[in-house]
Write the C-alpha coordinates for this entry.
Amino acid sequence: MPVLATFFWFLLLVQPFAAIAQQAEPLAETAPATWAAALRGTVDLEGGLMRLAAQREGLIVEVLVQEGDRVQAGQLLGRIDDDMARLQQQAAELELAQARASSLMADIKLDQAKAEMDRLNEMAAADAVPRKEIGQASSAIALASAERDQARIAVDLAQNRLALAKLEVSAREIRAPIAGVILRSSARVGDATSTSTVTEMFLLAPDGKRVLRGMLDEQFVGQVAPGQPAVLISERMAGVTLQGRVLRIAPIFGTPGQTSADQNGAEARGVAIVLSIEGAGAADLILGERLIARIGE
Protein backbone atom coordinates (compact mmCIF):
# COMPACT_ATOMS: atom_id res chain seq x y z
CA MET A 1 0.00 0.00 0.00
CA PRO A 2 1.42 3.44 -0.87
CA VAL A 3 2.77 5.48 2.05
CA LEU A 4 0.30 8.37 1.45
CA ALA A 5 -2.72 6.05 1.63
CA THR A 6 -1.41 4.46 4.83
CA PHE A 7 -1.03 7.90 6.47
CA PHE A 8 -4.58 8.82 5.39
CA TRP A 9 -6.11 5.75 7.07
CA PHE A 10 -4.04 6.44 10.20
CA LEU A 11 -5.59 9.93 10.50
CA LEU A 12 -9.13 8.53 10.16
CA LEU A 13 -8.49 6.15 13.04
CA VAL A 14 -6.81 8.67 15.33
CA GLN A 15 -9.23 11.64 14.99
CA PRO A 16 -12.24 10.03 16.82
CA PHE A 17 -10.06 9.08 19.77
CA ALA A 18 -8.58 12.58 19.88
CA ALA A 19 -12.08 14.11 19.98
CA ILE A 20 -13.12 11.82 22.82
CA ALA A 21 -10.00 12.74 24.75
CA GLN A 22 -10.69 16.47 24.29
CA GLN A 23 -14.26 16.05 25.61
CA ALA A 24 -13.07 14.11 28.63
CA GLU A 25 -10.40 16.63 29.70
CA PRO A 26 -12.82 19.13 31.40
CA LEU A 27 -14.52 16.33 33.34
CA ALA A 28 -11.16 15.13 34.58
CA GLU A 29 -10.41 18.66 35.83
CA THR A 30 -13.70 19.22 37.73
CA ALA A 31 -14.63 15.78 39.03
CA PRO A 32 -12.43 14.29 41.78
CA ALA A 33 -11.34 10.72 41.37
CA THR A 34 -12.84 9.68 44.74
CA TRP A 35 -15.43 11.02 47.19
CA ALA A 36 -14.91 11.47 50.90
CA ALA A 37 -18.65 11.62 51.58
CA ALA A 38 -22.07 12.03 49.96
CA LEU A 39 -25.35 13.39 51.31
CA ARG A 40 -28.68 14.92 50.38
CA GLY A 41 -29.53 18.42 51.51
CA THR A 42 -31.98 21.25 50.95
CA VAL A 43 -31.34 24.72 49.57
CA ASP A 44 -31.61 27.47 52.19
CA LEU A 45 -30.48 31.04 52.79
CA GLU A 46 -27.33 31.69 54.77
CA GLY A 47 -29.13 33.98 57.23
CA GLY A 48 -32.47 32.20 57.08
CA LEU A 49 -35.92 33.60 56.35
CA MET A 50 -37.37 36.71 58.03
CA ARG A 51 -40.81 36.68 59.67
CA LEU A 52 -42.18 40.22 59.73
CA ALA A 53 -44.69 40.81 62.52
CA ALA A 54 -46.82 43.72 63.71
CA GLN A 55 -45.37 45.95 66.43
CA ARG A 56 -48.75 47.32 67.56
CA GLU A 57 -52.24 45.97 68.01
CA GLY A 58 -54.97 47.12 65.66
CA LEU A 59 -56.85 46.42 62.45
CA ILE A 60 -54.99 45.92 59.20
CA VAL A 61 -56.16 48.64 56.81
CA GLU A 62 -53.74 48.16 53.91
CA VAL A 63 -51.81 45.28 52.32
CA LEU A 64 -49.58 46.31 49.43
CA VAL A 65 -47.75 43.09 48.44
CA GLN A 66 -48.50 39.45 47.79
CA GLU A 67 -46.60 36.20 47.40
CA GLY A 68 -43.81 36.33 44.83
CA ASP A 69 -43.41 40.12 44.87
CA ARG A 70 -39.86 41.46 44.96
CA VAL A 71 -39.44 44.27 47.48
CA GLN A 72 -36.71 46.77 48.26
CA ALA A 73 -35.29 47.72 51.64
CA GLY A 74 -37.64 50.12 53.40
CA GLN A 75 -40.58 49.44 51.09
CA LEU A 76 -44.02 49.68 52.73
CA LEU A 77 -45.68 46.26 52.82
CA GLY A 78 -48.75 46.88 54.95
CA ARG A 79 -50.28 49.27 57.47
CA ILE A 80 -52.30 49.03 60.68
CA ASP A 81 -54.99 51.60 61.59
CA ASP A 82 -53.03 54.70 62.62
CA ASP A 83 -55.66 57.45 62.85
CA MET A 84 -55.09 58.01 66.58
CA ALA A 85 -51.32 57.99 66.18
CA ARG A 86 -51.49 60.56 63.36
CA LEU A 87 -53.72 62.84 65.46
CA GLN A 88 -51.16 62.64 68.26
CA GLN A 89 -48.43 63.51 65.76
CA GLN A 90 -50.36 66.57 64.56
CA ALA A 91 -50.89 67.70 68.15
CA ALA A 92 -47.16 67.29 68.84
CA GLU A 93 -46.33 69.35 65.74
CA LEU A 94 -48.60 72.19 67.00
CA GLU A 95 -47.01 72.04 70.45
CA LEU A 96 -43.58 72.31 68.89
CA ALA A 97 -44.64 75.32 66.81
CA GLN A 98 -46.04 76.99 69.94
CA ALA A 99 -42.88 76.27 71.92
CA ARG A 100 -40.69 77.73 69.18
CA ALA A 101 -42.82 80.88 69.09
CA SER A 102 -42.50 81.25 72.86
CA SER A 103 -38.74 80.73 72.58
CA LEU A 104 -38.53 83.47 69.94
CA MET A 105 -40.47 85.87 72.21
CA ALA A 106 -38.15 85.04 75.10
CA ASP A 107 -35.13 85.85 72.93
CA ILE A 108 -36.64 89.19 71.96
CA LYS A 109 -37.44 90.02 75.60
CA LEU A 110 -33.86 89.22 76.62
CA ASP A 111 -32.43 91.39 73.85
CA GLN A 112 -34.66 94.29 74.96
CA ALA A 113 -33.52 93.90 78.56
CA LYS A 114 -29.88 93.95 77.51
CA ALA A 115 -30.44 97.02 75.33
CA GLU A 116 -32.10 98.83 78.26
CA MET A 117 -29.15 97.93 80.45
CA ASP A 118 -26.71 99.36 77.92
CA ARG A 119 -28.72 102.59 77.78
CA LEU A 120 -28.78 102.92 81.55
CA ASN A 121 -25.06 102.25 81.82
CA GLU A 122 -24.35 105.14 79.44
CA MET A 123 -26.56 107.44 81.53
CA ALA A 124 -25.02 106.19 84.76
CA ALA A 125 -21.61 107.26 83.51
CA ALA A 126 -22.90 110.83 83.53
CA ASP A 127 -24.72 110.36 86.87
CA ALA A 128 -28.00 110.85 85.02
CA VAL A 129 -29.82 107.78 86.35
CA PRO A 130 -30.44 106.47 89.87
CA ARG A 131 -28.65 103.31 90.96
CA LYS A 132 -32.04 101.73 91.70
CA GLU A 133 -32.88 101.65 87.99
CA ILE A 134 -29.55 99.95 87.25
CA GLY A 135 -30.44 97.21 89.72
CA GLN A 136 -33.90 96.79 88.28
CA ALA A 137 -32.45 96.49 84.76
CA SER A 138 -30.00 93.83 85.95
CA SER A 139 -32.85 91.86 87.52
CA ALA A 140 -34.85 92.18 84.31
CA ILE A 141 -31.94 90.67 82.35
CA ALA A 142 -31.68 87.73 84.77
CA LEU A 143 -35.44 87.12 84.57
CA ALA A 144 -35.47 87.30 80.77
CA SER A 145 -32.48 84.94 80.58
CA ALA A 146 -34.28 82.39 82.79
CA GLU A 147 -37.41 82.66 80.66
CA ARG A 148 -35.31 82.15 77.53
CA ASP A 149 -33.73 78.99 79.00
CA GLN A 150 -37.15 77.70 80.03
CA ALA A 151 -38.52 78.33 76.53
CA ARG A 152 -35.63 76.42 74.96
CA ILE A 153 -36.25 73.47 77.27
CA ALA A 154 -39.91 73.53 76.22
CA VAL A 155 -38.78 73.36 72.58
CA ASP A 156 -36.61 70.31 73.31
CA LEU A 157 -39.48 68.58 75.11
CA ALA A 158 -41.86 69.32 72.23
CA GLN A 159 -39.32 67.91 69.75
CA ASN A 160 -39.05 64.71 71.80
CA ARG A 161 -42.84 64.36 71.96
CA LEU A 162 -43.03 64.82 68.20
CA ALA A 163 -40.33 62.17 67.66
CA LEU A 164 -42.26 59.73 69.86
CA ALA A 165 -45.47 60.47 67.96
CA LYS A 166 -43.73 59.80 64.65
CA LEU A 167 -42.40 56.51 66.03
CA GLU A 168 -45.93 55.48 66.93
CA VAL A 169 -47.03 56.17 63.35
CA SER A 170 -44.09 54.24 61.87
CA ALA A 171 -44.70 51.35 64.32
CA ARG A 172 -48.01 50.79 62.54
CA GLU A 173 -46.24 50.46 59.20
CA ILE A 174 -44.73 47.13 58.18
CA ARG A 175 -41.69 47.74 55.98
CA ALA A 176 -39.14 45.41 54.42
CA PRO A 177 -35.90 45.61 56.46
CA ILE A 178 -33.92 44.31 53.48
CA ALA A 179 -34.44 43.61 49.79
CA GLY A 180 -35.88 40.21 48.94
CA VAL A 181 -38.94 38.24 47.84
CA ILE A 182 -42.23 37.81 49.71
CA LEU A 183 -42.76 34.08 50.20
CA ARG A 184 -45.97 34.28 52.20
CA SER A 185 -48.47 37.03 53.01
CA SER A 186 -50.67 36.25 56.00
CA ALA A 187 -52.04 39.80 56.29
CA ARG A 188 -55.65 40.47 55.26
CA VAL A 189 -57.43 43.82 55.35
CA GLY A 190 -59.78 43.85 58.34
CA ASP A 191 -57.86 41.27 60.36
CA ALA A 192 -56.71 42.25 63.85
CA THR A 193 -53.11 42.04 65.00
CA SER A 194 -51.93 41.17 68.49
CA THR A 195 -48.70 41.78 70.35
CA SER A 196 -49.37 39.29 73.15
CA THR A 197 -48.94 36.50 70.58
CA VAL A 198 -46.70 37.34 67.64
CA THR A 199 -48.79 37.94 64.53
CA GLU A 200 -46.73 37.09 61.47
CA MET A 201 -47.80 39.23 58.53
CA PHE A 202 -45.16 38.48 55.90
CA LEU A 203 -42.48 35.85 55.32
CA LEU A 204 -39.51 37.41 53.51
CA ALA A 205 -36.64 35.64 51.74
CA PRO A 206 -33.80 38.20 51.79
CA ASP A 207 -31.48 38.53 48.83
CA GLY A 208 -28.37 36.66 49.84
CA LYS A 209 -26.18 33.65 49.29
CA ARG A 210 -27.83 30.28 49.10
CA VAL A 211 -26.40 27.35 51.04
CA LEU A 212 -27.05 23.64 51.24
CA ARG A 213 -28.05 22.27 54.64
CA GLY A 214 -28.01 18.57 55.34
CA MET A 215 -26.96 15.81 57.71
CA LEU A 216 -23.58 14.17 57.36
CA ASP A 217 -23.92 10.46 58.11
CA GLU A 218 -22.03 9.10 61.08
CA GLN A 219 -19.79 6.96 58.86
CA PHE A 220 -18.37 10.10 57.20
CA VAL A 221 -17.73 12.07 60.40
CA GLY A 222 -14.02 12.73 60.68
CA GLN A 223 -13.47 12.43 56.94
CA VAL A 224 -14.95 15.82 56.09
CA ALA A 225 -13.67 19.24 57.19
CA PRO A 226 -14.50 22.87 56.33
CA GLY A 227 -12.96 23.98 53.06
CA GLN A 228 -13.31 20.70 51.18
CA PRO A 229 -14.77 21.07 47.66
CA ALA A 230 -18.02 19.45 46.61
CA VAL A 231 -20.05 18.79 43.49
CA LEU A 232 -23.77 19.51 43.86
CA ILE A 233 -26.27 17.69 41.64
CA SER A 234 -29.86 18.85 41.24
CA GLU A 235 -32.60 16.27 41.71
CA ARG A 236 -35.11 18.55 40.01
CA MET A 237 -33.12 19.42 36.89
CA ALA A 238 -31.35 16.46 35.34
CA GLY A 239 -27.80 17.17 34.27
CA VAL A 240 -27.45 20.41 36.27
CA THR A 241 -24.40 20.43 38.52
CA LEU A 242 -22.90 23.18 40.65
CA GLN A 243 -19.78 23.59 42.69
CA GLY A 244 -19.68 24.06 46.45
CA ARG A 245 -17.48 23.98 49.50
CA VAL A 246 -17.95 22.82 53.08
CA LEU A 247 -18.56 25.88 55.26
CA ARG A 248 -19.10 24.39 58.71
CA ILE A 249 -19.95 21.19 60.55
CA ALA A 250 -21.88 21.11 63.82
CA PRO A 251 -19.86 19.61 66.71
CA ILE A 252 -22.85 17.58 67.90
CA PHE A 253 -24.75 14.55 66.66
CA GLY A 254 -28.32 15.25 65.63
CA THR A 255 -29.98 18.62 65.09
CA PRO A 256 -28.51 21.29 67.41
CA GLY A 257 -31.02 22.37 70.06
CA GLN A 258 -33.03 19.14 69.92
CA THR A 259 -32.84 16.20 72.30
CA SER A 260 -33.20 12.55 71.41
CA ALA A 261 -36.82 12.72 72.54
CA ASP A 262 -37.43 15.50 70.01
CA GLN A 263 -36.27 13.11 67.29
CA ASN A 264 -38.96 10.49 68.08
CA GLY A 265 -36.56 8.55 70.23
CA ALA A 266 -34.32 7.70 67.27
CA GLU A 267 -30.61 7.62 67.91
CA ALA A 268 -28.70 10.50 66.32
CA ARG A 269 -26.87 9.15 63.29
CA GLY A 270 -25.26 12.25 61.82
CA VAL A 271 -24.16 15.84 62.28
CA ALA A 272 -25.53 18.98 60.65
CA ILE A 273 -23.43 20.33 57.79
CA VAL A 274 -23.61 23.49 55.67
CA LEU A 275 -22.10 23.85 52.21
CA SER A 276 -21.79 26.89 49.97
CA ILE A 277 -23.41 26.88 46.52
CA GLU A 278 -21.21 28.50 43.92
CA GLY A 279 -21.69 29.29 40.26
CA ALA A 280 -24.04 31.30 38.07
CA GLY A 281 -26.90 28.84 38.52
CA ALA A 282 -27.03 29.23 42.30
CA ALA A 283 -29.47 32.15 42.09
CA ASP A 284 -31.89 30.01 40.04
CA LEU A 285 -32.28 27.39 42.74
CA ILE A 286 -35.61 27.25 44.59
CA LEU A 287 -35.50 27.40 48.36
CA GLY A 288 -36.23 23.99 49.81
CA GLU A 289 -35.28 21.97 46.74
CA ARG A 290 -33.02 18.99 47.24
CA LEU A 291 -29.47 18.58 45.99
CA ILE A 292 -27.05 15.69 46.16
CA ALA A 293 -23.63 16.70 47.47
CA ARG A 294 -20.51 14.71 46.75
CA ILE A 295 -17.65 15.97 48.89
CA GLY A 296 -14.19 15.42 47.48
CA GLU A 297 -11.16 14.35 49.44
Residues 31-47+208-296 form a domain with the Elongation Factor Tu (Ef-tu); domain 3 fold (CATH 2.40.30.170). Helices lie at 3-30, 83-125, 131-170. Residues 83-125 form the longest helix (43 residues).
